[in-house]
Design goal:
alpha/beta; seven-stranded parallel sheet
Length: 272
């Protein structure tokens, strides 16, 4: 088929996308609409790709995303206000706007922040489980877990959820979620699933029809420093456009993407 064009690398991408779809289908079976929470209100566009993939994945499964419920757990912006508002007063505001139902679920953004390095995100997820875990199905999109074994008991809060599926985007993460969060499958379900960004996989144009975009982190998590002048010289007649992921931190990054650069990943969701 047309999806097979592009060689072995393309085939791997499609296989990963299909595995992601099947894992999400199992987690969301019977669900018609969701609240997609924890919008990545920061400059890491890798997380923006993951969010966009989650939206694409839910559309592929014919699951509607309630745009009025989109929120950010850590850095609120105009497009995604603080999730705290939904957690106040034992979640009564959400229960009125989005009553518990077998056809509804709370879906939490995936990525790589399940671990001791990012306590605000873990605290948010813990609060979601404590407030809504008894009444709502909760799905954690594919995540990387960075807890060492001796700290993995920090995941035990998931055991309070009556119906939760936790997706790990690598084998070790899936194992940690299965053993420590779900008690070996007694309290919830954990499964292996590729990164949600693979839901964006589509037929790509041939290399001769593409520009090159070097997307590199500029913050403390960068793998290395790139010599842009040397890279440009080595590229010869290929035009390279540079785009820093995180030259700085804070909501100003996301607001700039939305207003100036057209990168806002909520626009497509809202039909703008």
């Amino acid at each position: 088929g047309s999806e097979a064009s592009g060689g072995a690398c393309a085939e791997v991408r499609y296989d990963l996308r299909d595995a992601l779809v099947e894992a999400a289908r199992g987690a969301l079976r019977g669900v018609e609409e969701v609240a997609l929470w924890d919008f990545p209100a920061h400059g890491n566009r890798g997380d923006s790709a993951i969010w966009s993939g989650e939206v694409a994945l839910l559309r592929r499964l014919n699951v509607s995303v309630r745009t009025d419920l989109v929120c950010s757990s850590f850095v609120p912006v105009a497009a995604a206000p603080a999730c705290d508002g939904w957690l106040e007063d034992e979640g009564q505001r959400l229960r009125r706007a989005f009553p518990p139902s077998s056809k509804r679920a709370l879906v939490l953004h995936g990525g790589g922040n399940v671990g001791p390095e990012y306590p605000p995100y873990e605290e948010f997820r813990k609060n979601v489980v404590e407030t809504f875990g008894r009444d709502y199905r909760i799905v954690l999109m594919p995540q990387t877990v960075t807890y060492a074994d001796e700290m993995a008991s920090s995941l035990n809060f998931w055991r309070a959820a009556a119906n939760a599926t936790l997706l790990g985007r690598d084998a070790l993460s899936a194992k940690l979620l299965h053993v420590h969060a779900c008690g070996g499958g007694v309290f919830c379900r954990a499964a292996l699933a590729p990164d949600a960004a693979f839901a964006l996989t589509s037929v790509a144009p041939s290399p001769s029809e593409r520009e090159v975009l070097w997307l590199a982190r500029g913050d403390a998590e960068r793998a290395q420093t790139v010599d842009r002048a040397a890279m440009a010289a080595a590229a010869a007649d290929v035009s390279i456009r540079w785009d820093d992921l995180q030259p700085g931190e804070g909501p100003g990054d996301v607001e700039a993407f939305c207003s100036d650069e057209g990168h806002c990943v909520l626009d497509d969701l809202r039909g703008e």
